[in-house]
Amino acid sequence: MTTNIAETARDYFRYASPTISRVDLEQAACRDTDLEIFFSIDEADEAKAKSICHRCPVRWECLTYALETRQRHGIWGGLNPEERTLLIRRLRQETSS
Ligand code: SF4
To answer: Which atom of ligand 1 is nearest to the CA of 76?
Structure first.
């Protein structure tokens, strides 16, 4: 059975945010994709996962979910864990200055 990030995100959005829950996660570009490439350590897999994210209409909602829930693994919203950490640092710096 294929586990899907969109399924997880859909549950989160449905219960955590009435505003975001209006987003149609049926549009998630990874909807019918095997989750493995989003959690692979292989660079080619990561690039493939990111390319799927980059054409995803719910990319920003997915990234928001990953940031809010501090996802430590995987590609979410087109960013890997290191890139998300850098983004959080940058956002903190901007809000503190
Ligand atoms: S941004 Fe990427 S991981 Fe998130 S729902 Fe879209 S395709 Fe899936």
So the answer is: 3
Number of domains in the chain: 1
Q: Which domain holds residue 85?
A: 5-96
Instruction: Name the residue of 13, 50, 76, 84 whose CB sits within 8 Å of the most ligand 1 atoms, as the mutation to test its pocket.
Output: 76
Per DSSP, helices labelled H in the chain are 5-16, 43-54, 59-68, 81-96
Q: Which among 3, 11, 54 has a CA at the least distance from the CA of 29? A: 54
Segment 26-50, tens digit of pLDDT: 788 998 888 899 999 999 999 999 9
Task: Give the pLDDT confidence of 70-86 residue by residue, as tens digits.
Answer: 889 999 999 999 999 99
Ligand 1 in contact with 58 (CB < 6 A)? yes
